[in-house]
Model the fold of this input.
Amino acid sequence: MTFSDEFDRLLALLLQEYFKCKYKATNYTDTYTRKSLIEGMLHISKRASYNHCIEVQVDKHKVADAYHEWLEKNADRLAKEDAEFRDSLDKPYRVK
Done:
């Protein structure tokens, strides 16, 4: 596989941004240690998988769908419990 100049430019920008996020400061060089590059690539690959992997996206949608289904089933009960709680705050507490 041959990488283009544009790919190399974007990779340099990605690395620069990664280390800026990690260390909260700009790195004014374009060289890094092998250990930090390997660690950075691991974090970047995890982030790319989380944001762009189809299997992960399907899982995210399943979780979101399950939550919305649960919320639809329980919305009335939750609203009633919330109303009861708010009513209890309005009533003065009596000590016997």
